[in-house]
Amino acid sequence: MKRKTGLSLLIMLVVSACQPNVPLVSGRAESPDIQAADDATFQLDGKRSIDGWPTDGLPPTITLELSPDVPSSAATFVLRGQVVDDTGVASAQLQVGSNVAVPLALQPDGRFEEQVLLPYGEHTLRVSALDIGGIQSAKEVLAKRIGAPQDKDKPTLVVQTPAPGFEVNGSVVLVQGKASDDVAVTEVRVQVNEGPEIIAQTQDFFAHWRLNAGLSTAGKVTITVRARDASGKLTTKVLSGSTTQQFDLVPPILTITSPQPGASTLQETITLSGSAQDASGIATVQVRVNQGPYLEAQSSDGYASFSLPLALQTGSNLIKVRARDKAGLVTDKQITVLETSAQLWSPAITVPLRVQPNATKPQDFVLTKKGLNELFPPQKARQIVTLDMSVDQLIKGTLEQIRNACGPGWQKANSLDKKCPKAWGQAEINLWRLVTMTPANVKVAGTSIAGMSEIAQTLSQWGLMDSFSTILAAGLGIKETGLIVGSDAVADSMVANLVATHPNTASDGSIRITLEDCLKDLKTLASRYGPAGKHPGFLDPTSPPFSVVMTDDFEMKLKATSNLKWHDGLRLGVGKSYLALVQDNTGPSYDDVLEFNFIDPDSYQVSGLAAAPVVDLAFRITESPEFIPVGSSRYPLPKGNSKAWGLDPWTLEYALIDASWRYYKNHRAGCSYCSGKSTGALLWEVPVLGLDEAELVVGRQGYSKGGSKPEHFKALNPNPAGWLRVWTLFGLGTPPPDQYVWDMILGVSQKRLTDGGIKQGQGSVRFELKQVPVGLTGDDLKAKLKPSLQAQRKKLADLLMGPWKNSSPLDIFVGEGANGKTWLMFVANDDPLPKGSTDHPKRGFFADAKLTQKLSSTASQGSGDSQHEKLAWPNQPQTVYVGDVNGALHRLQLNPQADGTLWVTARKWVGAGQP
């Protein structure tokens, strides 16, 4: 049978951590030697529940669907279904044909799906379930595989053990082997001597089989094994051997010496005494009153004499005594005793208290993307941070795609060749022109340098001056076809001003990617990085981003150990209850419900992440509603007095002037006091005549013919980087006023944003972009996931386990000390219990009904606990008194058993006054 992994295994881990242990044998609830009814709790209303779990008496509901649901020649059938119960499902098992039952892996809603490999023939598929109240149910479907070839051969049968001539000294012999057939083996049966034929156990339709065969007589033993195929053909193997075991066939002799049958008593407790003897020895004597649990009788001489204090109920009490010898033979005797006192104590509530085992074995499980979605609903998934991602590469990729969206023509001098996306409006085209602006293609009409451009273009036609693009490129220190503002500077400005100022990003502009984002293919980022407060956002929530980070092959393999320990307890006046406490001995933190290690490669592995993730997104940026005059002063240093610096940083104008400042903040051009063009001056002269025609400086003083002062400019101090000055002969072309380079660029940019009839404030843009690189590889993601998840392992554990602290109210529980001793502990204020359930007027265990003679103490006594009132686990029957949260008195009769169980019979005082 193909077993499922992933979410189902994690659910099993969580369920096993959250419920007391329910042992299973071959898919059935395991019963001790005494029947399950004997190990039950009885409440005041007469309803029964195993170990105190509440139940309404209804069994689990099972639905089954088989595919195909008609006879089929296919070897694999698919069984789907659901197991639900209003009090919770403790376990579910699947038995296929004669195979032993195996556990079913249930999803959180109880659904399951199993692939079942079947041989030819008819097979019953049986699903059984046990709820946490101990009630079972089962449902079956019939699967039939047809198309078997003609059955020509008898089964092949091999008996591997025991060997012929075997000799054992015991009452059991292991018989096991193999069987096969050209069609199918339908059964293997084992017979000892003339005893009944017993079908062997198998998990693979008798390809392998085994049986612990019981022996009942000493001497010669004959074992016969028969294998039968689908057409009834039979193969038989016979082995002979012997056993030296001596068998006891006579049950014990049991005598009840006190009380006498039909006796009456005014006492609420009596001591039953008697004797038991047998040739093979007495294994145990157990006693119960009415329908209560069996309790171990006390004896120091092998049950030649035994006794046991018993709590009686008012009225008739049926006392049953059972003696079992070492051969397993049983003798029962019963008597009736009448308790005739007035009813001063409530009817008895009897519960078993045991030390529950630690769940220390690591559990392996595999999570797919679907499994993570089921395990972490959005409200949990958004709390888990997978990584804090730098958006530098994403913004650069976004700008790169915008820059190239209309073709490569922008890289050519004065090219008008463009084919922009049809979805773009004039505002998007205008911004595209800005991010592709070069000295060769820039349009400066209507700006402060328009006149300079016009005169340069006119004179350059006659060879009297360089072209405007040549002059501008020289002044900016770039090529004529180079970007006026470099792409890195624009990207850095966008990150710092548009992204980093968003209230949901980090101060460095990184964005937090949660598990929810990954599971939802990043669609959830739009709502988080859209409008927030005054910030307009940089992602459009009406068109969420999309990126497959986790592919369909995603798989996360984890190891986890549950640190949750369940403690048996008693709620006074109600019955059995449980208290969940964390028992974490693994650092660095010692309060983790589940123990993870995301750094250890044996404990954490992930695969199926996108090799080079890309994202579809709608990027936007808003324009200022008013035109911003450019700066006119060097001060305040180092940026000047442009009102753009007072805008919200996420506006388009602020991003443009800031990007220009980042690019040119250290830029200087021309010379200071050099002798002319040949020595570094940006100087243009009238050909032949030798007259100075124009000079340009950025953060320089200008050239000097005499060397003492600049020829065309006033000497400045300070003369900051980026401060642009232009001189022309006779003021030809109306040179622009002195200004910073970034102010000049902003003036050009603002004018171009209004091209095509766009009014000021209507130039906000929105770009639908596809397949933008995220800037991380799958290996990068893996490397970032490890430390991120390791730092959040406690949060992960808490989210997985849910509200585990919501234990039901109780008063007393079983505690284990650091010294290995077991204690009865009274609840304390810090225990994870409902509010008010630890407000006892008086805590502790007392020897008297007035609660004055305390038997317990909060002292550690080697236990490592100094908060709880503790009573040492008794080794003989003991009666103690306690008070509940309402101050009512309860009497506890403690009866320790040889198997470590402590049976507690509790009664509440209901008489007048005090006892």
| Radius of gyration computed on alpha carbons | 44 Å
Just give the CATH class of the domain at 7-145: Mainly Beta
What is the percentage of strand-forming residues? 25-35%
Number of helices: 14
Query: What strand order characterises the main sheet?
Result: 13-19-18-15-16
Structural class: alpha+beta
Q: What global shape is seen? A: elongated
**On the 0-100 scale, what is the average pLDDT?**
86
Amino-to-carboxy terminus distance: 63 Å
Number of strands: 48
Return the CATH topology of the domain at 7-145. Answer: Immunoglobulin-like
Low-pLDDT stretches are: 1-55
Largest sheet: 5 strands, mixed
Tell me what the structure shows.
β15 (185-192) and β16 (197-199) form a beta hairpin. The chain contains 14 helices and 48 strands. The two termini are 63 Å apart. α4 packs across α8 and α8 packs across α11. By secondary structure, the protein is of the alpha+beta class. Among the domains are: 7-145, Immunoglobulin-like (Sandwich), CATH 2.60.40; 156-243, Immunoglobulins (Immunoglobulin-like), CATH 2.60.40; 253-343, Immunoglobulin-like (Sandwich); 812-908, no CATH class. The strands form 14 sheets. It has a 5-stranded mixed beta sheet, with no helix packed on it. The longest helix has 14 residues, at 778-791. Mean pLDDT is 86; it is low at 1-55. The radius of gyration is 44 Å and the shape is elongated.
Topology:
Elements (H helix, E strand, L loop, with lengths): L6 H12 L5 E2 L2 E2 L11 E2 L5 E2 L11 E7 L8 E9 L4 E8 L5 E2 L7 E7 L3 E11 L4 E10 L10 E6 L4 E3 L3 E9 L4 E8 L4 E3 L8 E7 L4 E11 L4 E10 L9 E6 L5 E2 L3 E9 L4 E8 L5 E2 L9 E6 L3 E11 L4 E10 L9 E5 L9 E6 H7 L2 H4 L3 E5 L2 H12 L22 H10 L14 H12 L6 H9 L10 H13 L11 E4 H5 L5 H4 L21 E13 L1 E8 L3 E8 L11 E2 L8 E6 L4 E8 L30 H13 L18 E3 L6 E7 L24 E6 L10 E2 H12 L12 E9 L4 H14 L1 H9 L10 E5 L5 E5 L43 E3 L5 E6 L5 E8 L5 E7 L7
Parallel strand pairs: 13-19, 21-27
Antiparallel strand pairs: 1-2, 3-4, 5-6, 6-9, 7-8, 7-10, 10-11, 12-14, 14-17, 15-16, 15-18, 18-19, 20-22, 22-25, 23-24, 23-26, 26-27, 28-48, 29-32, 30-31, 32-35, 32-36, 33-34, 33-43, 37-42, 38-39, 39-40, 40-41, 43-44, 44-45, 46-47, 47-48
